[in-house]
Design goal:
There is one protein chain. By secondary structure, the protein is an alpha/beta fold. The protein has one domain: P-loop containing nucleotide triphosphate hydrolases (Rossmann fold, 3-Layer(aba) Sandwich), CATH 3.40.50.300. The protein has helices spanning 22-30, 67-75, 107-117, 122-136, 151-163, 181-196, 208-214, 232-240; strands at 3-17, 38-52, 56-60, 82-87, 91-94, 169-172, 200-204, 217-222, 225-231. The protein has a 6-stranded mixed sheet with strand order 5-6-7-3-8-9, with helices on both faces. Helix 3 crosses helix 4, helix 3 crosses helix 5 and helix 4 (122-136) packs across helix 5 (151-163). The radius of gyration is 20 Å and the shape is globular.
Length: 241
Amino acid sequence: MPTAIEVKNINKQFVLRHTRSIKEAIVWLVKGRKGDLSEKFHALHDVSLEIDQGEAVALLGFNGSGKSTLLKHISGVMVPDSGTVRTRGRVAGLIEVGAGFHHDLSGRDNVYLNGAILGMTEEQINERFDSIVEFAEIGKFIDTEVKFYSSGMYLRLAFSVAVHTDPEVFLVDEILAVGDEPFQKKCIEKIQELAAEGKTLVVVSHDLDLVSRICDRGILLERGNITFDGPIEQAVATLRA
């Protein structure tokens, strides 16, 4: 199978700024700004992996392990300090609720805006518009400004637009937890449908039972390093151990 995602030797650091007392800050300034009021957090260490077209992969690990940071690099939301990330085909999904949505625009306008950001033409959005609204269960609120939406409504519309782009690579972060249970079930069924169609899936979740059902491969991260890459059952067992 052709490679859908190729990550080569990526590194990512974040600067953590610490709040100091006024006295400490003055001393720091008087000393000519010697010493740093911040420290660096190494989120990803020389991470490499390949995901083939049609694979369903879970990125697993405890909080701060680097899994969401890695997913954001695959999506293109983040750029590595060094190394490369390559993807094949249209990439879509839910990394952050409402990314690409404009608060002051209506749901209808945001469908067109977000659809365009995700690579759909206006004609494609026109064709799929009714289906997007129906799946999202937004109904009469489609012409309401999204700043008045609940987090659940926001999520439903964002997810619906993403799945209707017909992506080759679909990425999902923890945010499915925002939706209500019936819609979560509907989302999971849609994700399983995409997997059955041979789409490439990358999922970040703490729900180990869920990823065991959806994914066939698990990648464990710990402090920005890959510590395991293999069958999902082994990955889940290792994390639970």
